[in-house]
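Students often ask why we bother predicting the structure of a whole assembly rather than each chain alone. The short answer is interfaces. A chain on its own may look different once its partners are present, and contacts between molecules only exist in the joint model. In this exercise we take two input lines together and write out one structure for the complete complex. Read the inputs first and try to guess which parts will touch.
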Amino acid sequence: MSVDTRRHRRTRIGARLVVLAAGAAVLITPFLYMISTSFKPNSLVFEWPPKFIPHPATVANYVQAWGANDFARYFGNSVLVACASTFATTLLAALAAYAFARFRFPGRSVLFWVLMLGLMVPGVVILIPQYLVATSLHLNNSLPGLVVFYVGAGVALNTFLLRGFFASVAPELDEAMEVDGAGSMRRFVALYLPLSRPALATSAVFAFLAAWDEYSWALTSINDPAKYTLPIAIAQFQGQHATSWGLVFAASVIAMIPVLVVYALAQRHIVTGLQAGALKS
Amino acid sequence: MTTQVTAVPRRERAGEPPPPTATRGAGRGRAAARRTLTAYALLLPAFVVFVIVMLVPIVKAAQVSLYQWSPFPGGESTWVGAANYTRALHDDQFRLGVVNALVYMLITVPGQILLGLAVALLLESRLPARTVFRVLFYLPVVTSWVVVSLLFRYLFVTDGGLVNWVLMDVLHVVGHPVGWLDSRWSAIGAMSALGIWKGVGWAAIILLAGLTGVPVEHHEAAAVDGAGYLRRVWHVTLPALRGQLVFVTVLLVIGGFQVFIQSLLMTNGGPAGQTEMPLTYLYKQAFKFLDFGYGSALAMVMTVLVLVLSIGQTILANRRAA
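Now the answer. The structure tokens for the assembled complex follow.
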């Protein structure tokens, strides 16, 4: 009987694998086709029947995307904005999370709930007033201005994530350090930050992905082409070269590489973050 | 343990006291005051940015919606009271957009939940290559909306698009190319396909986290009673996943109703505004026609609709639980 159940179980696992593989294939096909098209000359992007292995294959789209069209500049803009936003969001959120997790002060819950309000407000619906505020503060059409807005939009979620981790640091460690005469900031740097490295990584990954992929606000705020970030540049690309799909997808593939690298390095942190209640990006 | 649900912001309890600190005896008052100051100093940078970027705009949205707002800095804005709201209520294009978004939501929310649940159940327990699958299913989730919207526009092209090729030459279900993006419902169908494709992995991961909390003994007991697999999923797994299902549904409904980039980049509202969504429409009112007041009124209406949807769902879910 045990042989029988084992065989039964093995067939069941086999069936599950087949179904999952079929699902994964459907999910991955669009990406594969995109990569394939990025290596096709323009005359073949609507070839019938469609081919997944381009023939003849060409890297002309990559050369053109990177060389012409200022694409290297947009890539640089995105790197700057995403890295600065990631650093600032994580730092500011960590400081605030430390206060919420380990200090008792008047207005503590009110302030926390005000911050959580930011998680519930739908993003695009406050674009108009955000644009007006940014205009009066001269934060429109500037890359540092983008950073300020990405930090403001992300700080609530990351404070929420980090607060949970800081609160789980054993209070005895904290007290022991305090008895030894360590001040609040010293405990923050020497105790909380090192112990919360996985949480900080999760926070950083989410902040990076959010800033790297952000489109709506950048579209609204930036109108000088020299300050485009990648999502704007790619969308504009498609508008300007309506049929140059090879070019558009070469640009898209280049833009996806940092995301894939971050994803590959931090896959576990992303999953942990989501399971800890991080919102959909 | 029911850890996952308590991690949802809405249910978060902000008020649990922090552990006692070593402030005792003389100088206690001064130490407490210093700690309070330190706390405020720690909060200050985050709150300055948060107030500028989120809080002021939230308040400002309501104000702007009551004006014929001048789009130019220093220009004169005229108070118009509820006029923008009256106009919104009689705006057929906005109403069409709301219907479109509701249809998009009604397709994508069940689609993502059912497929996500299926993936979660398939990935449950020991399985070779589990991580590989998890990574693959999650890949569309981390890809930018801009890239995948353009990609799906390309896949759904009428002549030479991959989708039409599969339907015609592989599955032989249609005889001639379908003009997916040329008419209202087929275009919304294409957008919905994108929405489901991009979100299944997210739903699956959240639900998978909940599955680890389902006691194996319950399953075994039901199996001994002769319950088949589907019956056990219905009677044992789904009730245990309640928290996650509510969380996923609420967020997907809110997100689905706010469909934006897909419509902007796949059809740009065309043909003739037939696939316009509430957010693309209000965006154009503000930044194409520079009617900030009207755009803000539409945004307020959307905010109220989103709040009603999410509060309504939460009440519904809680009542069913009781």
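Check your guess against this: Chain B touches chain A through 101 residues (CB under 8 Å).
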